[in-house]
Amino acid sequence: MSRQTARFSVAACLLLFFLFPFATYALDHPAVLLAPHAEVLVDVNGDLDFNDILELDNGRFSPVSGNSFRFGLRGQAYWIRVSTRRLFDAGLIDTERPGVLAFDYAPLQFVDVFFPIQSSGVSGDGPTYTRLSGGWGYAGRRDDRTFVFPVFAIPDSIDTDSEIYIRVASELSANFRLFLAPSDAFRPTELSIILFLGLLTGVMLAMGLYNLVLFVALRDRMYLRYLVYVSVMFAYQAQLVGLSRFLPFESELLSSGSVVAWTFVAMMAALAFSWAFLSVPHTAKKVRPLYYCFWTISAIGLVLVVAGRLREANLVAHGAGILLPFVGFTAAGVSYRNGSRVSLYFIAASTVLLVSVFVFGLRGYGIVPHSYQLTHAFFGAAALEALLYSFAMADRLRTLRREHTGLARRARELSDEALTDELTGLRNRRFFNRVFPSAVENARTARQPLGLLYIYVDTFKTLNDTHGHACGDMVLRGLAIAVQRNLRSSDVACRLGGDEFALILPGTDARSGGLIAERIRGDFLGLWSGATPPLAEGCIDPDTMDLDTQRVFPVGMACSLSVGVTELRRDDTPRTLLSRGDEAMYSAKVDGGNRVFSA
Q1: Would you state the CATH architecture of domain 419-598?
Q2: Residue 551 has pLDDT above 50, yes or no
Q3: CA–CA distance, 289 with 411 (Å, rounded to integer)
Q4: From CA 98, how far away is CA 225, in angstroms rounded?
């Protein structure tokens, strides 16, 4: 087993070690599940108020099957009725011991609980009812306790010969368990849940901070993509499990609509990160239409949220969530079949999360029974993925360092007079011929992009004939300095001969290579602006020129660059890559020069 695999295994075991005590702490003991003791009425139009319910025929209520309420994604209102007499006779309500009524699912929109209170009037009078409200739809005016899911204190004076009525309405999934528990017995459950969610929050924040430091230090955009992905995933999970209740404010951002919106944003972020991590454009081109399709679905979902069609958006979100794991595994499989080693990290890190996404989507439709462990396991899977991805990113950093170190070491080994252009100080054609095939092979093995710039000095021959070879030499030296200003330590610049140069750019695609080429072209043109004072002799000593003073070339001299840009493709050989760069440079020259052309 490799050291990387061992670290993956240890991390997974540690997280599962912390997860196990929480997962085995059941709310059923000492809590009492109310579904077996409850009846339900479906309010299809959501227009029944509490007085209407009291006047309805008892036959309208139906018993509940199972231990949980599985109302799915219908977006209707539901009335739940529980007989306090049955609970009292069964010893489930103790008027001498304060208790709580709790729902084990955080993203419920509207929850209204009507507790019967003993009447202080003449014997035979019916009970009065006190109404307590909770759920995100009541932001700023909730009566439930500040906890991750709705928890209501049972009044001390509850009437034990009546019924508790509960109204639940949510445009999100309305699958939950409802339970009673003594207040003192419920505190350990609260503590275990808070500790578990705190652990997962700490893992995700620590991994985000770790990769932020790496991004600041290395300026590698992959770490920034990962940071964005982890941040979005944490924001989504925090609302899903109810951590947003502990913020010192409530706003429209903490609403049922925001949960659905964050679902689509999380999907888009996950797709974007896997796209970059697996190098889908290079290693899994056939999977690209699937990515485009799911990005489009996510965008449509966000439009539905903005338009206020939360129920339709929620249906789309759960459907896309069920199918999304297949996209990730398909991309990883194709990438691995094409020789990408990094896809193994993706599979190892994402398996738990993608499986939990699939199961959570089925839970939303009511196909899989609800449990609070399932909801929080989704958060746990996200934290585990963040931890494992951090190991994968660290290994990626080591791989890139080895590749860059190897290329630099190879360059140093060949760094002698026979491989250096005496005039410009750049490497020569012989060095290029030795290093270029190795750079192509390294990029192909690591599944990393490789850029190539092919540079031609426009009107160089005319300049030589008009101003002399000394000025021509100065032009080439000036170009060399402009090139070196814009290259990293891992890049290689070579003079192929006369007025042609080639630049090898590891880890750079054609787009980034084009930006580098434009900077070089601009710096080179800057050598001609404001060239003072006029030089009667026609040229200055190339060894004493200073690019920062703009006192380089005599008035009347002008020169520009034609630059061809290309990148390594799947079927390229060193010869075909170089040939395409040469053709791109020629196209720039034919179009009039002084431009960059990508091929």
Answers
A1: 2-Layer Sandwich (3.30)
A2: no
A3: 41
A4: 50
Q: Tokens at residue 14, please?
A: 């540690």
User: 0.85 cut: is pTM over it?
Assistant: no
The tens digit of pLDDT for each residue in 473-510 reads 888 888 998 999 898 888 999 999 888 999 999 989 99
Does residue 173 contact residue 314 with C-beta atoms inside 8 Å?
Answer: yes
Q: Please give the structure tokens belonging to residue 63.
A: 């018993």
Task: Could you please state the CATH topology (level 3) that the domain comprising 32-185 is classified under.
Answer: Immunoglobulin-like (2.60.40)
Q: What is the DSSP string of 222-246?
A: HHHHHHHHHHHHHHHHHHHHTGGGG
Helix or strand (DSSP H, E) at 217: helix 183-218
Q: What percent of the chain has pLDDT over 90?
A: 22
The predicted-structure confidence for 136-164, as pLDDT tens digits, reads as follows 778 777 888 878 888 999 888 888 888 99
Q: Are 272 and 225 in contact (CB under 8 A)?
A: yes
Q: Which of 505, 494, 475 is nearest to 419 (CA)?
A: 494
Q: Could you state, in order of their start, the residue ranges of all structural domains in the chain?
A: 32-185, 191-398, 419-598
Sheet with 450-457: list strands edge to edge: 492-497, 500-506, 450-457, 561-567, 595-598
